[in-house]
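Why do we bother with holo predictions? Because pocket geometry can differ from the apo form. Keep that in mind while you read this record for hypoxanthine.
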Amino acid sequence: MAQIAAEYIRSKAGKETPALAIVLGSGLGDLASQVQEAVSIPFENLEGFPVSGVSGHSGALICGYLGGARVILLSGRAHYYEHGDAAAMKTPLQTLAALGCSTIALSNAAGSTREHMPPGTLMAIEDHLSWSGPNPLIGMQGDKRFVDLTDAYDPELRVLMQNVATRKGITLESGVYAWFSGPTFETPAEIRAVRQLGADAVGMSTVPETILARYFDMRVTAVSAITNYAAGMSDVALSHAQTKAQADRIKDRFVDLITGFAAEFAG
Ligand code: HPA
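The structure, written out:
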């Protein structure tokens, strides 16, 4: 399926190898409008790609240039909570690998477990806790499935991202992301527990994609847009509407950061 999708994408968008793939999180779709010479392919036209029913996720693959670099954006993703399939993003990620993408930048909206990271914070993910979801590689065959997740979030890419942020005057925190299955938000007790265990942010995506991307030999970097304090930490009621509204406030800085990061990959 991935080979067929890759051929189709090449036939529509040209054969140039993308220097960087980017997955856009909830409410962060605006980056797509910054892509130059954009060719947009709806996920419906790509077999094995998820048609997401989650608002804030548009469901298209966009090829073009960002910061002068050849990029592929996935605007929209599948979440584990949609169908109970941790490997829902397998074909999209395998397709990116088949197209020759060797680096991927993942993004998400997330809750913060730390007082010093209020809503509006951007956080580079340095490691993760796969807290409640199964592993997307379950059922895969062969020795390749035993992926080393030490430095799953590439330290060099994180330094590069941090340097771009500093240059642009954007504050970029760094921390551990804990993956909860969703679709409920967490309980305050769960948040207290994972904070003790080292989680700085919580969310419902990204971890399966990181594992799949590492399986397909891509270097991974990831950024969380903190849209709220996690459950029990503030009086603000948690809702998807609130996530999208807060993501909207962060998106300009996010676009600036990722565009600057992409520019580092310009040929
Ligand atoms: N929990 C899980 N996912 C999220 C949150 C949260 O608090 N905020 C945005 N996505």
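The longest helix spans residues 240-263.
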